[in-house]
Write a structure and sequence with these properties.
By secondary structure, the chain is α/β, with parallel strands linked by helices. The chain has one domain: P-loop containing nucleotide triphosphate hydrolases (Rossmann fold, 3-Layer(aba) Sandwich), CATH 3.40.50. It contains 9 helices and 10 strands. The strands form 3 sheets. It has a 5-stranded parallel sheet with strand order 4-8-3-9-10, with helices on both faces. Strands 5-6-7 form a 3-stranded antiparallel sheet, with helices on one face. Bound molecules: cytidine-5'-diphosphate. Cytidine-5'-diphosphate binds next to helix 2, helix 4 and helix 8.
Length: about 230
């Protein structure tokens, strides 16, 4: 978004610090997280996984037994939440919840929580604050459209449902969850539908996003493609 920040150094002329924002959006299991993290590493930018923030709120609501469909209840819950986003980790009221937010139970409920206006309002503010004044690669569903509409480069990453379910199964196996591809395909399709049809900030490519179908691409190929776009080699 090329935010331009002017700082006045003691006795000197103002220096201009220009920051760069890269938006990576796409549906569940398209490989966004891995790709965005690697791109950020390569460019030396801050990596922000916004899905982890929605997941952390979902985990909190499930633990507290709050009805996850209820905007008022979530709005009250948010008052008791402190999220700290560190590179590759997320803390919920001081507790590192990086691993539990990936559980199948959180995955099944997160899109219901992510529809609620109070939740989106709260996280939008937090996400914009995180991107202020630093170079970022921010990844999610609505980054190029709503959170950072002025991002310098926007990518929309997808893959077939079958491929995404296969990848998700591999991820979950490494975490000790054995879930069939058929079940995952169904869950992913349900989440795609909820995410792309909700009223606020639905999942959709920004009009100026570069679309990448990763079905037949390796992670490294996708990373290289994005980095070369950002560095202006295309
Ligand atoms: O890792 P996975 O692709 O399964 O999803 P995620 O990025 O962790 O996001 C989990 C859920 O959070 C999504 O299915 C959306 O419902 C919600 N989300 C959102 O609404 N907006 C974002 N910017 C990021 C995530």
């Amino acid at each position: 978004m090329s935010k331009v920040e002017t700082t006045h150094q003691k006795g000197g002329r103002p220096t201009i610090n220009k920051t760069t924002a890269i938006a990576v959006d796409g549906p569940a299991g398209a490989g966004k997280s891995t790709v965005a993290r690697k791109v950020a590493e390569k460019l030396g930018f801050l990596y922000v996984d916004t899905g982890a923030m929605y997941r952390a709120l979902t985990l909190f609501a499930l633990r507290r037994g709050v009805p996850i469909n209820n905007d008022e209840a979530l709005s009250e819950l948010i008052k008791q939440v402190r999220l700290d986003v560190k590179p590759g980790r997320i803390l919920l009221n001081g507790e590192d919840v990086t691993v539990p937010i990936r559980s199948p139970e959180v995955s099944r409920h997160v899109s219901l929580v992510a529809r609620l206006p109070s939740v989106r309002r709260y996280l939008l503010k937090l996400q914009r604050e995180l991107a202020a004044n630093v170079n970022v690669v921010m990844e999610g569903r609505d980054i190029g459209t709503v959170v950072l509409p002025e991002a310098d480069k926007k990518f929309f990453i997808t893959a077939s449902v079958a491929e995404r379910a296969k990848r998700r199964r591999q991820d979950l196996l490494t975490q000790g969850h054995d879930i069939s591809v058929e079940k995952l395909e169904k869950e992913i399709a349900e989440r795609d539908l909820l995410d792309s049809t909700r009223d606020i900030a639905p999942l959709k490519p920004a009009s100026d996003a570069i679309f990448i179908d990763t079905t037949r691409m390796t992670i490294q190929e996708v990373v290289d493609r994005i980095v070369s776009e950002v560095q202006g080699n295309r």
